[in-house]
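Chapter summary example.
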Amino acid sequence: MQTRLWLISHASTAAQRSATFADANEPLDARGLAEANAYAQRARFAFDGAREVRALTSPAACARDTAQALGLNATVAAGLADTDYGDWRRARVADIVVQAPQALDAWLRDPAAAPPRGESFEAVVARVGAWLDALANDDLADLTVIAITHAAVLRAALIHVLHAPAAAFTQIEIAPLATIELRYSKRGWAWWPDARANLQP
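The structure predicted for these 201 residues follows.
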C-alpha cells in the first residue's frame, strides 16, 4: 500500500503578478479565484477513486482560499508555509534591485543565502523534508493527501525526494496551480510524473 501526496501551488495572486514578495495575509483576488475555480473543474477527475482523502493547506490566506475554491475542508499545516521573506516581505523585486542588488543576486544564486531576517532556500528544503518525513511516519497507508501550498515548497519537496542539490532550485519552474504527485512506500518517497498532474489548460 502507498501514500499518495498531491502538492498543488496556490492560484496566482496580485503580488505574484506584480513581482512582489509574498505577504502571508494576502488573499486571492478575483483573477486568482477564477483560476482556482477553473482548476477545480479540471482537477476533479484526478482525485476520483481515492479511498480516503486528507486535505492540508499552508497557513497563507491565498492557499486557504485556493483550498476552499477546490471544495477542500483543509487543515492548516505549518510545514507547508511559504518562504519567510523577512524584510523583503511586501517589497517589489524592482525596488530590491535598486536597494540591495548584491543581496538579491546572492539570494537568487546561492541556496544558503536569505533575505534579511528571512529564510534561505536550504532552510525551506530542510523544513519541507522534515514535514515529508513526518508525514511518512504517520498512519497514512492507502491514503491520498492533497496539500495546497507554494511554488517554493514544491521545489523543496522535489529536491528532497530526488536527493538533488539545493542549488538546483533555480532550474525548477513552478506555475500557479502546478501539481506534482509523490508516493511513499517501503522504498521511501518517489516522484510520479503523470499526465493527470499536468492540469494546466
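To summarize the output: The mean pLDDT is 90.
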